[in-house]
């Protein structure tokens, strides 16, 4: 008889079991159970565990079986997660520092991307304003408008240079929610 693969051996393990093993607090609602999704940090339950043994988060859109859940929660490969589940051994506690580092790196990348985009926009605005100023006679309304546009862009650049990393992240997240 053919031996089952590690993934096939995990098929019967409900995602709810893996979630409990990871310390998620499940709350029953009808035939389903709900919890706060640890993958995107929230305050209200949006991750659902169904009677078929699968899970889905309505907040971040992720979902799947027990292997996918353990893989996502631990930041490990699906194969590593399947091996842990298939062997039936207690799942070792997650490396919280590694998870926190991973989240911190993602947040920093978001902030850096926002900063780079804002810097590029302000530089482009400055160049365009200077080109307009060169095309108009000093003292005309059009020249004054171009001068004001350049001053505003330079102020944005100055403000960007003064932001510390925390302020960059706050600004990036504020822009995402708009």
Which key terms come to mind for this protein?
DNA Primase, Chain A; single chain; 178 residues; 8% strand; five-stranded antiparallel sheet; alpha+beta; 7 helices; 5 strands
Descriptive notes:
With 178 residues, the protein is α+β, with helices and mostly antiparallel strands. It has 2 domains: 6-86, Zinc finger, CHC2-typedomain (DNA Primase, Chain A, Alpha-Beta Complex), CATH 3.90.580; 97-176. It is built from 7 helices and 5 strands, in the order ααβββββααααα. The chain has helices at residues 6-10, 15-21, 66-74, 78-86, 96-135, 141-162, 165-176; strands spanning 27-29, 32-35, 47-49, 55-57, 63-64. The chain has a 5-stranded antiparallel beta sheet, covered by helices on one side. Strand 4 (55-57) and strand 5 form a beta hairpin. The longest helix is centred in the middle third of the chain and has 40 residues, at 96-135. The model has no long low-confidence stretch (mean pLDDT 85).
Fold topology:
Blueprint: H1 6-10, H2 15-21, E1 27-29, E2 32-35, E3 47-49, E4 55-57, E5 63-64, H3 66-74, H4 78-86, H5 96-135, H6 141-162, H7 165-176
Antiparallel strand pairs: 1-2, 2-3, 3-4, 4-5
**Major beta sheet summary:** 5 strands, antiparallel
Radius of gyration over all CA atoms, rounded: 26 Å
User: What is CATH's topology name of the largest domain?
Assistant: DNA Primase, Chain A
Number of domains: 2
- Proportion of residues in β-strands: 5-15%
End-to-end gap: 58 Å
Classify the secondary structure makeup into a structural class. alpha+beta
How are the strands of the largest sheet arranged?
1-2-3-4-5
Number of strands: 5
Percent range of helical residues: 55-70%
The CATH architecture of the largest domain would be Alpha-Beta Complex
Question: Low-confidence parts lasting 5 or more residues at pLDDT below 50?
Answer: none
Characterize the overall form: elongated
Please write the string of helix (H) and strand (E) elements: HHEEEEEHHHHH
Oligomer: single chain
CATH superfamily of the largest domain: Zinc finger, CHC2-typedomain
Task: Determine the mean pLDDT.
Answer: 85
- CATH C-level category of the largest domain: Alpha Beta
Number of H- or I-type helical stretches:
7
């Amino acid at each position: 008889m053919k031996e089952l693969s590690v993934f096939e051996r995990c098929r019967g393990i409900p995602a709810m079991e893996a979630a409990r093993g990871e310390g998620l607090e499940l709350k029953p609602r009808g035939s389903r159970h709900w919890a706060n999704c640890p993958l995107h940090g929230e305050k209200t339950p949006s991750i659902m565990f169904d009677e078929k043994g699968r899970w889905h988060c309505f907040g971040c859109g992720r979902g799947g079986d027990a292997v996918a859940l353990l893989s996502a929660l631990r930041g490990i490969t699906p194969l590593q997660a399947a091996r842990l589940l298939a062997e039936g051994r207690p799942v070792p506690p997650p490396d919280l520092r590694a998870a926190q580092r991973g989240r911190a790196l993602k947040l920093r990348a978001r902030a850096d991307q926002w900063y780079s985009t804002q810097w590029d926009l302000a530089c482009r605005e400055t160049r365009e304003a200077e080109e307009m100023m060169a095309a108009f006679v000093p003292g005309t309304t059009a020249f004054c408008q171009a001068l004001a546009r350049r001053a505003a862009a330079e102020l944005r650049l100055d403000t960007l240079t003064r932001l510390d990393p925390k302020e960059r992240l706050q600004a990036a997240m504020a822009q995402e929610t708009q």
